[in-house]
């Protein structure tokens, strides 16, 4: 059953500059992909393809042309990534000697090719969003800390109490926000900020076309959509 969601039509949102739009839409270059490959932690478990990022680092000179072709095809008309956008869920022990289910934790293993595309897109997005994020945002940004928000709130409460002034405090809690996020709302926000339609489509394909499988006794038990 489809649920109707309102669209944001606020024209006061800041827009991307022409410079940022050009940087987002520029063809992917081998040097930025090279940076993503060699800045990544190569000692990570591989995804369904069986190749970890250490493999890409070690054989970069041989794989470079094939990897760049993946980027070129992905950027062309915002095509999906097919089987590269697949992952597997497995359970790993939280500590040595784990036997009961509560002592295991789930992790999601992603294909190296998809991981590289995601890292390069994130690097471009980070540069483009620099002028769109408010200065009051205190978390999930380089140089800012979540603790700043708590400190600021404590100072406000202390000031109200000290000066005997009335005030109201609103605390909002989010549970597993990523899994509950309305993706169409995010894409709408990006459009209102002036992100190019092709870029929004590329990002949407990364999210909405993802699929996963559960690894049971070393065997993947069929893939299912996870968007």
TrEMBL record:
It comes from the Eukaryota. This is Reverse transcriptase domain-containing protein. Pfam families: RVT_1 (PF00078). Signal peptide: none annotated. Residues 92-204 form the Reverse transcriptase domain.
């Amino acid at each position: 059953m489809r649920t109707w969601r309102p669209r944001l039509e606020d024209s006061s949102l800041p827009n991307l500059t022409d410079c940022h739009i050009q940087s987002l839409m520029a063809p992917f270059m081998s040097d930025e992909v090279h940076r993503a490959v060699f800045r990544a932690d190569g000692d990570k478990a591989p995804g369904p393809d069986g190749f970890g990022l250490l493999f890409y680092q070690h054989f970069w000179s041989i794989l470079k042309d094939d990897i760049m072709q993946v980027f070129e095809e992905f950027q062309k008309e915002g095509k999906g990534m097919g089987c590269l956008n697949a992952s597997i869920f497995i359970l790993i022990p939280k500590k040595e000697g784990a036997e009961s289910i509560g002592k295991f934790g789930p992790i999601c293993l992603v294909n190296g090719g998809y991981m590289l595309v995601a890292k390069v897109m994130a690097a471009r997005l980070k540069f483009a969003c620099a002028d769109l994020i408010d200065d009051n945002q205190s978390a999930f940004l380089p140089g800012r800390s979540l603790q700043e928000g708590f400190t600021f709130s404590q100072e406000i409460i202390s000031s109200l109490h000290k000066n005997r002034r009335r005030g109201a405090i609103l605390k909002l809690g989010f549970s597993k926000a990523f899994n509950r996020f309305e993706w169409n709302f995010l894409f709408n926000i990006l459009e209102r900020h002036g992100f190019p339609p092709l870029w929004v489509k590329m990002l949407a394909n990364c999210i909405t076309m993802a699929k996963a499988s559960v690894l049971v006794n070393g065997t993947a038990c069929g893939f299912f959509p996870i968007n």
